[in-house]
Design brief:
- The chain is an alpha+beta fold.
- The protein is built from three helices and 20 strands.
- The protein folds into two domains: 16-97; 133-389, Lipocalin.
- Residues 1-21 form the signal peptide.
- InterPro entries: Olfac-like_dom, Olfactomedin-like_domain.
């Protein structure tokens, strides 16, 4: 090939080379553009994924916070449910001790007048003993302070005749609910009343002169100027009988316990009522009660003064009156009246009780245990008595 032909081919080769170079550049640009698009798409997807991940994280945190709130609300609800269950248990205990509808107790004026006349006729007659009990108190052998429960005034006792170990608590001097503890242990260990059953009485009581005797509660109800002795069956929670006490113009029986008008007591001989009237307002009176009918079998005027008396109980047919001072000091049995005449007042021992907190609002003698259950300024105390034969005193 000649030189001139080479010269002619050079421009053609240059054009072809330029065309290929242009195509290559266009190809590279297309690949770069595609790569940029993919990088942009990846960036968009990455941003979207980051946003979704952040939104998911925020959602999970919100759900965790909601779950924590629900857990706290559930814990609060469980605690509230526990409180409601405890309240329900107390309400169930209360319903279990509810009484049927109170019976209608009407006062028969004619019968009351007849009882008053009969009692006055038998007043101060010679008493025929029912048992051979001839003991009297020689001293207080021991004192045990159990606990402090309830108001400053009240009454606690066991059944004076039965074998039950239940503890009956009358808190205050005017109420209608009696607390019942199954044993002394429960009463001693627990300060609250959750462990106690409750007996709601059909009529409120007055004073601290009540008594549990042979499965029945004998308690005092005030109805206007008169006072009723209510006999309440503790087993079936019903009123068995009631009687207007056949004494006119009654006054508080103890000078230092103005809330008690009748003190129902029990001893080896049975049931007694300790009271006072305006007819002989300086001294205390005593009556023998029939536990079955609540009739007054016999009445006595005693030489024991009301002034500075804070309580009384009967032991083997002898009334023992406990005295104190207006500013509480040491209580002592300072007057004894024996209905059988076996023990002369001047021959009785002067019995002192250990110094305690204030003054007794109630003192209940248990003939089967030979001890006194006392309520002293809110403290529950047991006095164990040392006994002697009357002829030895």
């Amino acid at each position: 090939m000649g030189p001139w032909r080479c010269l002619l081919l050079l421009p053609l080769l240059a054009l072809a080379l330029r065309a290929q170079q242009q195509q290559f550049m266009e190809y590279v640009e297309r690949r770069l553009t595609l790569l940029e698009e993919r990088i942009s798409q990846w960036h968009d997807q990455s941003s979207r994924y980051s946003t979704e991940l952040r939104d998911f994280k925020n959602q999970v945190l919100g759900m965790l916070e909601a779950a924590e709130k629900e857990r706290e609300a559930m814990r609060t609800e469980v605690e509230s449910t526990g409180v409601r269950v405890d309240r329900l248990e107390r309400e169930v205990d209360y319903l279990e001790t509810q009484n049927p509808a109170p019976p209608c107790v009407e006062v028969d004026e004619t019968l009351m007048e007849k009882q008053v006349a009969t009692a006055k006729q038998r007043k101060n007659e010679k008493y025929t003993k029912l048992t051979d009990c001839s003991d009297t108190i020689a001293s207080v052998r021991a004192m045990k302070i159990l606990k402090r429960f309830g108001s400053t005034s009240g009454l606690w006792t066991k059944d004076a005749a039965g074998s039950s170990e239940k503890i009956y608590v009358f808190d205050g001097t005017a109420n209608d609910t009696v607390y019942v503890f199954p044993r002394m242990r429960e009463f001693t260990l627990f300060s609250a009343t959750r462990k106690a059953a409750r007996i709601k009485l059909p009529y409120p009581w007055v004073g601290t002169g009540h008594l549990v005797y042979d499965g029945h509660l004998y308690y005092i109800r005030q109805q206007g100027p008169s006072f009723q002795v209510i006999k309440f069956n503790l087993a079936n929670k019903t009123v068995v009988d009631s009687s207007v006490f056949p004494a006119e113009e009654q006054i508080p029986v103890f000078g230092l316990s103005p809330f008690t008008y009748i003190e129902v007591a029990a001893d080896e001989e049975g049931l007694w009522a300790i009271y006072a009237t305006k007819e002989d307002e300086k001294n205390i009176c005593l009556a023998k009660l029939d536990p079955a009918s609540l009739d007054i079998e016999q009445m006595w005027d005693t030489p024991c003064p009301r002034e500075n008396a804070e309580g009384a109980f009967v032991v083997c047919g002898a009334l023992h009156v406990v005295y104190n001072t207006r500013l509480p000091s040491r209580s002592r049995v300072q007057c004894v009246f024996d209905v059988s005449g076996t023990l002369a007042p001047e021959d009785a021992s002067l019995v002192y009780f250990p110094k305690r907190y204030g003054s007794h609002s109630s003192m209940k003698y248990s003939p089967r245990e030979r001890q006194v259950y006392a309520w002293d300024d809110g403290y529950q105390i047991i006095y164990r008595m040392e006994m002697k034969k009357k002829m030895e005193v």
